Amino acid sequence: MSIYGMDEKEKMLLIINPVSGTHTKERIPERATSILSSRFDVEICYTEYAGHATLLAQEAVDKKYPYVVAVGGDGTCNEVARSLIHTDTAFGIIPIGSGNGLARHLSIPLDPERALQMLDTAVVESIDYGKANEKVFFCTCGMGFDAWVSRKFAEGKHRGAMNYVKKAVEEYLKYKNEVYRIETADGVIQEKAFVVACGNAAQYGNNAYIAPRADLHDGKIDVTILYPITPIDVLPVVVQLFTKWLWVSPYVKAFETNALTVTRERSGVMHLDGEPVDMPEKIEISCVKGGLKVLVPGKKPRKSIVEPIQSLIFDVVDTIKHELDI
Question: Which domains can be identified in the chain, with CATH numbers?
Answer without folding.
Answer: 10-129+290-324 (3.40.50.10330), 135-289 (2.60.200.40)
